[in-house]
Amino acid sequence: MTTVTDPQSLGQDMLELVPGLQFDHQEILRAYQQVVDRVPVTDPEHPEHRLRRLGLTHRAGAADPWHDAGTGQFDQKTGEKHFEESEFAFFNEELKDTYFHHLYQSLPFRIGRMRLVPLHPGEIYHMHTDASRVAHVAIVSNEDSRLLFRTGHTYHVPTDGRVHLLNTRLHHSAYNAGGTTRIHLTMTKVE
Questions:
Q1: Which Gene3D superfamilies match (predicted)?
Q2: Which terminus of the chain, N or C, has less C-beta within 10 A?
Q3: What's the CATH code, domain 2-189?
């Protein structure tokens, strides 16, 4: 396994730092807390579920704009496509006063799903590919929370306010071998 600390050494086929964009990490943390404070409890028996699969963008007429972006684009068993990324063209109205909306408007490319994705200690995703590249901004992280490519390269997204555009069309996984939860803002590029 090859640990990558310099983004340029991973190669542009796997990673691109979006040039000219660096966001204020303290404002990102503040925006995250604003979201947490505003998400409604929809399952009183499991109030913690309100923070799972949390989306900042949604499709037109979504019954639950907070969680519409939380599902996968493809059925894992059949491969059937559920939606197009371009359908997630609406930013949650209740969050338009947050720094996340500023970030959303500042991107030099069009995105579909914009989500807050926690990865808890000891959690790992299965190896998979995505239909589009996914940009990551780390909100909270630890050095042992990484993306893993089938090539054996691993990459830690630091909490530096930069937009790390990863080529998730390549086989990859993510894992958290650290002792604290990792939270990323992920933005799937419409391609």
A1: B-lactam Antibiotic, Isopenicillin N Synthase, Chain
A2: N
A3: 2.60.120.330
